[in-house]
Fold this sequence. Notes:
Helix content of chain A is 0%, strand content 53%. By secondary structure, chain A is an all-beta fold. Chain A has one domain. In chain A, strands 1-10-9-6-7-8 form a six-stranded mixed β-sheet, with no helix packed on it. In chain A, strands 2, 3, 4 and 5 form a four-stranded antiparallel β-sheet that branches. In chain A, strand 3 and strand 4 form a beta hairpin. Chain B is of the alpha/beta class. In chain B, 35% of the residues lie in helices and 19% in strands. Chain B contains twelve helices and twelve strands. The longest helix of chain B is centred in the first third of the chain and has 16 residues, at 29-44. Chain B is globular. At the A-B interface, strand 6, strand 7 and strand 8 of A face helix 4 and strand 5 of B.
Amino acid sequence: MQPNKLLKPSLYSEGSSNRDGTTVRLKGGRCRCGYVFFPMQTYGCERCGSYGDALTPYELSAEGTLLAEASVHLHADKNRLAPFTIVKVALDDGPVIRTLLADDSPPVTPGQRVTGRLVPTTQSESGETVLDLRFSIAS
Amino acid sequence: MARSLNELRPVYVVGIGWHRYQNPSETPYVELGLTAIRSALADARIEWPTVESSYVATALLGMASGRPMLRHLGATGAPLMHVENASASGSTAFRHACIEVASGISDVALAVGVDKRNPVRRSDTGIGNLAEDAIVPFTHFALLTNEYAVRHNASTEDIAQVAVKNHRNGAKNPNAQRQQERTLDEVLGGKRVSGSLTALQCTPIGEGAAAVIVASEDGIRRLGIDAGRAIRTTASVGRSERVYPPGAGFDAALTKETADLALAQAKLTPGDLDIIELHDAFTVEELHYIESIGLCPEGHGVRMLKEGALDIGGQCAINPSGGLIAMGHPIGPTGIGQIGEIVMQLRGEAGPRQHGGARTGLAHMVGVGAVCYVHILQK
């Protein structure tokens, strides 16, 4: 079996695998002032302006609550074929993120608990399965 | 000690002009811009050489587009600068033209916005993102629509009524890109875009130009401008996004703090406003922003809309021009066109879309980034 490849390894890492797919840890950051953000960066803290060593990697759980969803019917970019659904999720660890709902997820509504996991998207040229983050209703 | 615009010398809008907002065409931007500027000069009844400084608002024309346009008015050697501030480019240009005149550096200045619908290009920040390529502006606002509908128990039909009103206003505006009344069924039955948003609830892609000329009292006297048609800018505020509580809508939070500062500057309350031109690129925005400006409590926007309080002739006419949904949003011109609409209304020259007795108007734009600009004009 070919190893998995992550589409965006700077943003998330692979956790354990179970029957629902592969769990994921998000690569967030935390400032000395306490502000938690996603993704990790060292340019400077949006809240207090501290930079460099004041900002440290801080893993975020991909568990959260759905704030909003939108099914996109039209999209000009040919690399991303509509329809697909965008979700806005308040992570339990603080930041609010926006990303894609899993294609096999039932419809979601604001207030529901959701979980991010790594799901196979495409195959790379060398035959590896490429995983990317998708959210779905928490099991 | 820092001072606000209305603590400097008074500044007035004395000339307004447009090139109609329209679907993308072969017309060069130079022709669009010159049409708007010549129309603003004619409205003020002044000649081009009296303009001491120009601010050219454009987001999509690329570097140094102003001089190849302005030279055809006669190259006077007056300074010019370009302003790019996303959707708020025109509002920002207007603010700086006002500041230049209010400060005493010039007596007469031009703010002109012109754009063609070229592709938007933004540089990579070096920070990755999960799926931003999949979240274009209409999806950002489709998400906000979903949140607003759930939080305030507003139906798709309720929110779409914003488009019905603004298409009705745009139908009476010869400078609007869309000049056709639309029923609720037409609005809802159109092409689905994202979430519950349909094409007629979204601003169209287009091009055009808008120009305003601002002047000091000295300038008005010296050039013999009709002071009875001059409309004073009594507040100007620009702000950018801060860190808000997680999940708070930054567009609305930023609008609230910017509008609060502008109303305080002009010593007004939201109830004093007769006209508001605001950034309704997508229907839900109008509800968010009237609530942020303080016209009604959060979640009560739909009620005002349904009562007709936001119509021309209602309590406060919102987007009598047709707004971004019907008049259009060619980017650079939009914020300047809002000022022109308010001036026309306060002069009582808005013809079939005149809001009776209008004395006070507020112009609001947000721009990707996010930035927010609010101006208040008073008769």
